[in-house]
């Protein structure tokens, strides 16, 4: 048996990136981590999301890029 953390369905949030509105669906745990990471970097979550969006390759969706960024930050903090 495996112990799972509290599981939630993805939550869709509207954000503005480069003056354009879009929506992204992420699990609440990822939204919380993004806000915490942004705060630690002295940015707003919107600023961090825009920076990730600008850096991602076009074939990678924004939600995927955000999840992978959060994972990389968490892994980096453990090292």
From TrEMBL:
Residue ranges occupied by any Ribbon-helix-helix domain in the UniProt entry: 10-73
Pfam entry (one): RHH_4
Protein name: Ribbon-helix-helix domain-containing protein
């Amino acid at each position: 048996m495996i112990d799972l953390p509290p599981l939630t369905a993805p939550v869709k949030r509207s954000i503005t990136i480069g003056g354009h509105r879009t929506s992204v669906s992420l699990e609440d745990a990822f939204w919380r981590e993004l806000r915490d990471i942004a705060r630690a970097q002295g940015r707003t979550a919107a600023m961090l999301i825009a920076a990730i969006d600008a850096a991602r390759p076009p074939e990678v969706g924004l939600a995927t890029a955000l999840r992978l960024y959060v994972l990389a930050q968490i892994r980096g903090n453990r090292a």
